[in-house]
Amino acid sequence: MSVKKSINIMVAEISDILADHSPSIYLYGSVALDDFKLGWSDIDILVLTKRNFCADQAETLVGLRQSLSERYPGNPYFRLFEGGMRSLGAFINNAPKRTVYWGTSGQRITDNHYFDSFSMAELIDGGRLLYGGDIRDKLTYPTYTELRDDVRKHYETIRKYAQSTNKSVNSFGWLLDIARGIYTLRTGKIIAKTAAGEWALENGICPVPEALTKAVEVRRDPLAVKSDDGVLAYAEQLGGEIQKFADVLEREQYVSDPCDVLTRERYDRLKEMAK
Questions:
Q1: Between the N and C ends of the chain, which has fewer C-beta atoms within 10 Å?
Q2: Helices (DSSP H) in the chain: which residue ranges?
Q3: What is the C-alpha separation between 264 and 261, in angstroms, rounded?
Q4: The pLDDT of residue 257
Q5: How far is CA 71 from the centre of its chain?
Q6: 237-248 in b/e burial notation, b at 16+ Cβ within 10 A?
Q7: How high does pLDDT run on average in the chain?
Q8: Quick check: 162 pLDDT over 50?
Q9: Tens digit of pLDDT for each residue in 178-201?
Q10: Is the pLDDT of residue 208 over 70?
Q11: What is the DSSP string of 98-113?
């Protein structure tokens, strides 16, 4: 079964469960950006309803990924769906209302759903409406400051958790995330991860181009190398290369906002290094 047919089945199930709540179902992220790679990517969806749905509906939705995986054994896509389902009013106002959340670590019924500025920009700019009415005119596009702040949060995560890497093709993702962050800081726009890596290479931005080149190659076809001992051994040794590229992202943050954290003297020194 194809990813497209799997998405159609998922949308039909969700829209049936929430039929009396006028759901709008969106696809965003790598699939919407034509950058979905089986073996690496998730399938990101957002479901917004006209009003709050009931507890029984939430219970059915929270287990839907598993039930579809059991109904279609061998399908690799249903477990990859991630996202949130809540009322439009709660989403816009960030109000604590009943929410179904699907994530990498599992699924749960909660009262909120964190939706960062990158996801909002992707949704508004390139999200695909799969079902219902288009309500994006009611949403607010993130400011450059909000995008920059989320880049900074990701940068801090890279510094904290990517000093060393695992023997996994996903370890290459840190490099592509850095390239994407730099692209956003320079342009105020969102780009697919593969395209971000290619852009950084074309513009000579990465100080370790061999590592980023390999990251782009792996991203293009992760299933082809997921059991390649050489590639996996390389992935396990990427910590140093990632931190060198993160140095560039650090400079880019402060070039974009010289008065935010650094003194003027240090900012001028970093700006000179970035030329």
A1: C
A2: 3-17, 55-62, 64-71, 88-93, 117-126, 144-161, 173-187, 193-202, 209-220, 222-225, 229-236, 239-256, 264-274
A3: 9
A4: 60
A5: 28
A6: ebeebbbebbeb
A7: 91
A8: yes
A9: 999 999 999 999 999 999 999 999
A10: yes
A11: -EEEEETTEEEEES--
Angle at 93 between CA 87 and CA 97, to 5 degrees: 45
Size (the chain), residues: 275
Segment among 5-14, 20-29, 210-219, 250-259 with least mean pLDDT: 250-259
Report the C-alpha gap between 134 and 268 in whole angstroms. Answer: 46
Supply 178's token pair. Answer: 């850095």
How many angstroms separate the CA atoms of 219 and 40, rounded? 8
C-alpha span between 51 and 57 (Å, rounded): 13
Work out the pLDDT band at 256, boundaries 50, 70, 90.
Answer: low
Q: Is the pLDDT of residue 69 over 60?
A: yes
Residue 207's CB is within 10 A of a number of other CB atoms, namely 12
Cα–Cα separations (whole angstroms), residue 100 to 37, 53, 167, 233: 25, 10, 32, 38
- Pair of tokens at residue 87: 């009322």
Residue 19: Cβ within 10 Å count: 10
Q: Tell me the angle at which helices 3-17 and 64-71 cross, rounded to the nearest 10 degrees.
A: 130
CA 240 – CA 163 distance, rounded (Å): 7
